[in-house]
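Handout, section B. The chain below has 715 residues.
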Amino acid sequence: MKLFKRETWENALENIKDKKRLRIVALLVLFFISMTSILMIQFGAQGIDWAVGQVAPRDIQSDRYLNFVDEKATIAKQEKALAGFQDSYKIDLEKFNNITILSISDYFAKLEQVCQNVQEEEYTEEEGIEKLKSVFNFQLTDEEWLSLLQLEESEKQQLYELGIDYAAAIMSQGVLQENIDNAKAKIREAIDLDNRITGGSEKFLQSIIGQVVFYPTYVYDQVTTEQRKTEILATVEAEKIVVQKDELVVRKGEILTERQISILTMLGYANENSNWAILGAIALIVLVIITVVSTFIRHFIPKMYNNEKEIALLMVLVLITVACYKLFLLLTLSPITAQAAQVGYLIPVAMGTMLIAILLDVRLSLLVNAFFAALVGLYTSDISFTVVALVSGIVGAIGVSSLSQRSDISKTALYISATNTVLIISLGLLNSQSADVIAIGVVFGIMNGFVSSVFTIGLLPYLEAIFGVTSSIKLLELANPNQPLLKQLLSEAPGTYHHCVMVGNLGEAAADAVGANALLVRLGAYYHDIGKLKRPYFFAENQFSGENPHSNITPQLSTLIITSHVKDGLEMAADAKLPPVILDLIGQHHGDSMVAVFYHKAKEMDENTKESDFRYGQPKPQTKEAAILMMADTVEAAVRSKKDATPGQIEGFIRSLIKAKQEDGQFDECELTFRDLDQIAAAFVRVVNGIYHKRIEYPNQESLTTARKKKEKRA
């Protein structure tokens, strides 16, 4: 009878998952509130409605160094410089030539058409006059219309040219839109004074000038105007406000000025936006960061997505780093204002990225570093600080991406300092900064590298202890031969100790070949057989006397003793407080593989022997590292029996061992590919041939004595 139905277990598991999700959501909410609060310290207003002309209710001191441009004062200076400025104009005859003159020509063309019809007797003179009246809405008498019909061709041409000449003479001087009527009056006056134009001809031409549309020929020149304005504004220096840390900005009872309001705004006391608007903006920024990082983790680091400890660790690291921004931005390390402004280069962005890279994931550290750099820009409003923060963070993450020894962090500090130096000098030259300002910036940049590294090393052990995360530094400490378990293994089971070291050599080479964590594999190899300390002489590598205790017991008992070293090892590792990743490797290094020797021995004694009774019964390897350790353990133990094998035979034997594990299903739950298995086998072959190569047989002392005597007799 089953105590629990399958559905009951499934519901229980689902409840556990739901609780985990709730806890993760609670962590996200807590992080959202904390992050928003820290940012609001910088940007939030202080609850008093400050305004120009208001009486200051209390003294205000600056809590940090400020060096910024007073926008209002700068605009006032620019407006003063532009006082009396006149826009630029240019003469443009395009519309006059293409529209006005063509319109005048059109009037004369119509006159010519009617005159031609009269000359060809299509119209009588009376009909011609009526036609002119209908075509032109001019106030001319019949005699004046008749005089136009009787004009010679040359007279009409002269009249046309005179009209064009007078119009062009006036308009080519440049006429504004508002002066068009005056220009027309001058053209008509010139026509009136010309004795060559009389009677109907004068009235006709005057009427044309009155009706034709004239366009301004003196027009606004936007390009030249803007260029001149730019040149004038370039001579106006920005009005900068410099405030020292602890400087008294406002004294109680003072009437507030524009300058004081500007300073109070920068300090967060007076802001044109309300606190709610600022809070909303900051909340949206934090929400975007959380969304992007969460999406990245879900797609690229799925194992971390539901890991409460790792998510909590990431949040703590981000909050610590952002809090450090605030701390370092409050420092003013130089009495000279221009130099004190360089303190932004001291912000230890690389500390956050290095800690995330060491404790969590390098790819994640690079993403978060981009947000760190953006926040530096948000805090400082200086692109130079942002660039240095971004690049130094990337260098820090790459520098610790493959820690193999403690000194790698110190080397990374040098890389960060060198990179910062180059960037700060380059940015200083681009911004035309003086040599002393660049120099102090370089000093801060160099300090940044070492401060980031010191903070990283100092925080690592506490973060590891609190969140139970195992870093490469912790693994390096566990690799020390003076560790109690390793010393005990060396003294009580030297054969097993030697076996563990050899397995570590094989495993490290294989891990390097497939991109796995080589340091973790070596550490797993060192500790994977510590359970043999309970009964060391039941294992072949520790049987130096030639006696095999398994000869006197049943195969079932032998199997129980052999397989129990895994459980014993897990208990000893837990008592020694070894990290979970090492316990996983100890528990999985045999998987549920079979103890073949004793199974076949038992099978010979009893045909009904069950194979399941001779298996380890442990989880199969869940990671590449665990699978590599399993293969390295098997290969090292088996290859020692091949004393006189050739390199080709050794390779075939190694590949057959790996294939047997694969066919037994031991690699079904890890991420190994066939290509990985091939590369692992090749790495094993290379290491094994280097360890177990044939050596020259050295003669013993008796042989040397006999040879010497024979030589003396011949002499």
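Note. The first strand starts at residue 60 and ends at 61. Compare this with the example in section A.
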